[in-house]
C-alpha cells in the first residue's frame, strides 16, 4: 500500500471524499493486467501505474510506478511517500537494508504467494531520467490489524529527520522511527514501511517478483 504526507499537511492513506482530496480515480484499468490511477491533493498530483506479468503458481510478477508532481508555481513542499507491506496473521517479512537507513527490499513468504521479493528502486526525475536526491526512513513493527496501519504510522512519526540536499538549505521533516508499535495492543501481523522524502517532481518504482 501507499500513504503520503505533504509536510505542513496531514497524513493521507485512503482517499475519502470528505477529507480534502479533490479528485481520484482510475483513468485506465483492465481489471487484471494493468491500471493507471490519478489522485489530486491540494496541488499535488500522484499518478500510480501498475503492470502485471502472469506466470508461475502464484499469479506472476508486477511492477508499480508512482509519479509525483505539483501543479502551480512556487516552491514545492517536501513530500513523503510511505510504501508498505503488511501481514495479517500469516506470512513473514524480512527487511533488506541498504546503508542501515534505506529499506531496499522486503523478502517475504505467504501462503498465497509462496516466496517473494518486493524491491524499492531509488527515485528518479519525473521522466525516469537521472537519480533524485531523497532522504529515507524505515519502520518495522508489529500491527494489531490492518485497520490500525494509519494510526501506527502516525504514532511513529517524529519531527527529528533532516532533509539536506547538497548545497541547499537543510529542512526538518516528520520521519518514522525505525521500530515501534501501538502500546497495549498485541500484534497480529507485521508491517515493513519504506519512507522516501523528496521534492517533487519525481518517479519511484516498486517491483514484486
Automatic annotation (TrEMBL):
It is an enzyme of class 3 (hydrolase). One of its GO terms (biological process) is protein N-linked glycosylation. It holds the Pfam family Glyco_hydro_63N. It is found in: Endoplasmic reticulum membrane. Residues 2-120 form the Glycosyl hydrolase family 63 N-terminal domain. Keywords: Endoplasmic reticulum, Glycosidase, Hydrolase. It catalyses: N(4)-(alpha-D-Glc-(1->2)-alpha-D-Glc-(1->3)-alpha-D-Glc-(1->3)-alpha-D-Man-(1->2)-alpha-D-Man-(1->2)-alpha-D-Man-(1->3)-[alpha-D-Man-(1->2)-alpha-D-Man-(1->3)-[alpha-D-Man-(1->2)-alpha-D-Man-(1->6)]-alpha-D-Man-(1->6)]-beta-D-Man-(1->4)-beta-D-GlcNAc-(1->4)-beta-D-GlcNAc)-L-asparaginyl-[protein] + H2O = N(4)-(alpha-D-Glc-(1->3)-alpha-D-Glc-(1->3)-alpha-D-Man-(1->2)-alpha-D-Man-(1->2)-alpha-D-Man-(1->3)-[alpha-D-Man-(1->2)-alpha-D-Man-(1->3)-[alpha-D-Man-(1->2)-alpha-D-Man-(1->6)]-alpha-D-Man-(1->6)]-beta-D-Man-(1->4)-beta-D-GlcNAc-(1->4)-beta-D-GlcNAc)-L-asparaginyl-[protein] + beta-D-glucose. GO terms for molecular function: Glc3Man9GlcNAc2 oligosaccharide glucosidase activity. It comes from the Eukaryota. PANTHER family: MANNOSYL-OLIGOSACCHARIDE GLUCOSIDASE (PTHR10412:SF11). Belongs to the glycosyl hydrolase 63 family. Cleaves the distal alpha 1,2-linked glucose residue from the Glc(3)Man(9)GlcNAc(2) oligosaccharide precursor. This is Mannosyl-oligosaccharide glucosidase. It comes from Peucedramus taeniatus. The lineage of its organism: Eukaryota, Metazoa, Chordata, Craniata, Vertebrata.
Amino acid at each position: 500500500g501507499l500513504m503520503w504526507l505533504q509536510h505542513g499537511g496531514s497524513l493521507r492513506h485512503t482517499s475519502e471524499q470528505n477529507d480534502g482530496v479533490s479528485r481520484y480515480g482510475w483513468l485506465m484499468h483492465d481489471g487484471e493486467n494493468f491500471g493507471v490511477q490519478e489522485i489530486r491533493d491540494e496541488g499535488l498530483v500522484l499518478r500510480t501505474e501498475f503492470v502485471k506479468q502472469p506466470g508461475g503458481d502464484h499469479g506472476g510478477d508486477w511492477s508499480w510506478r508512482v509519479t509525483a508532481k505539483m501543479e502551480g508555481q512556487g516552491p514545492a513542499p517536501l513530500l513523503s511517500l510511505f510504501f508498505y507491506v503488511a501481514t495479517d496473521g500469516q506470512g513473514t517479512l524480512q527487511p533488506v537494508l541498504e546503508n542501515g537507513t534505506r529499506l531496499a527490499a522486503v523478502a517475504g513468504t505467504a501462503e498465497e504467494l509462496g516466496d517473494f521479493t518486493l524491491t524499492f528502486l531509488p527515485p528518479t526525475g519525473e521522466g525516469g531520467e537521472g537519480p533524485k536526491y531523497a532522504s529515507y526512513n524505515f519502520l518495522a513493527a508489529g500491527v494489531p490489524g490492518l485497520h490500525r496501519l494509519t494510526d501506527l504510522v502516525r504514532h511513529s512519526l517524529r519531527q527529528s529527520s533532516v532533509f539536506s540536499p547538497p548545497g541547499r538549505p537543510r529542512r526538518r521533516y516528520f520521519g518514522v522511527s525505525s521500530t515501534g508499535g501501538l502500546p497495549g495492543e498485541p500484534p497480529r501481523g507485521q508491517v515493513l514501511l519504506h519512507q522516501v522524502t523528496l521534492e517533487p517532481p519525481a518517479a519511484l518504482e516498486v517491483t514484486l517478483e
